[in-house]
Design goal:
disordered N terminus, alpha+beta, 5 strands, two-stranded antiparallel ribbon, three-stranded antiparallel β-sheet
């Protein structure tokens, strides 16, 4: 599905750039889970596969918070994609919605490699 990406600028009328949002995820389908293996090590799973073991020894790093964020990534991507699909047509240049829409499209592109 394509939606306009509203570039930033000072002009009163800016032609939108067309952005193609992903149709179907290419990542391992969710749900993903954060938890501990039998060994006690913290990790992230897309059952039955373990994708990540987090280093809990780094000072000042909350590995459990990181694991929860990583595990929520597929749901966050789906929610952000849905929001961008619905908000895009209403994102007028120079508005906060246009800025948020551009950020959403950039994050989706980074997550999907597009």
């Amino acid at each position: 599905m394509t939606h306009p990406r509203i570039p930033t600028g000072t002009a009163t009328h800016i032609e939108p750039e067309v952005v193609t949002l992903p149709q179907a995820p290419r990542h391992t389908p969710g749900p993903w889970h954060a938890g501990r293996a039998r060994s006690g090590r913290l990790g992230v799973w897309a059952t039955p596969l373990q994708y990540s073991v987090l280093d809990e020894t780094a000072p000042g790093i909350d590995a459990e918070a990181n694991a929860r964020l990583i595990a929520a990534a597929p749901e966050l991507l789906a929610a952000l994609t849905a929001l961008a699909q619905h908000a895009g047509p209403f994102a007028q240049a120079g508005t906060l919605l246009a800025h948020a829409y551009a950020q959403a499209c950039a994050a989706i592109a980074r997550a999907t490699g597009e």
